[in-house]
Design brief:
By secondary structure, this protein is mostly helical. The protein is built from four helices and two strands. The chain is about 65% helix and about 5% strand. The longest helix is centred in the last third of the chain and has 33 residues, at about 90-120.
């Protein structure tokens, strides 16, 4: 996979992680709202499907498929953990918030390092 597709994957992943953080914070803020059903963001499985089906595709096709991926916000209607119909587990949400924040920061470092290597190559190590 070429660096342009890797950079696009990192950018798309950061977008999905940012959205995941927003959704998790929404879940946490509604933890005591009767009948509220938690939401989650699906992204990794969508990316995985694109990458698996793009093995024999041209670089342009792969980039188009990656750029078309949009994270999906889905509501969990199957579970209920509280008598009021709410299914938010605050402990789990805080754990997921921490995980998503750490992943975002890691992805940000990877992207910055990628750009730094590119700058280094362009300037031939000068500047």
């Amino acid at each position: 996979m070429r660096s342009d597709s890797a950079v696009m994957i990192m950018e798309k992943s950061m977008d999905a992680l940012w959205q995941r953080n927003r959704v998790i914070l929404d879940n946490i803020s509604n933890a005591t709202t009767p009948g509220y059903k938690r939401k989650e963001v699906k992204f990794e499985s969508l990316l995985d499907n694109v990458l698996k089906t793009s093995a024999a595709s041209s670089r342009g096709e792969i980039l188009n498929r990656i750029s078309a991926i949009e994270p999906e916000v889905v509501r969990d209607l199957q579970t209920t953990i509280n008598v009021d119909g709410n299914n938010v587990d605050s402990d789990k949400e805080f754990t997921e918030l921490y995980r998503a924040t750490e992943q975002y920061q890691y992805m940000e470092r990877l992207l910055n390092d990628s750009y730094a290597r590119l700058r280094y190559a362009i300037t031939e190590g000068r500047g």
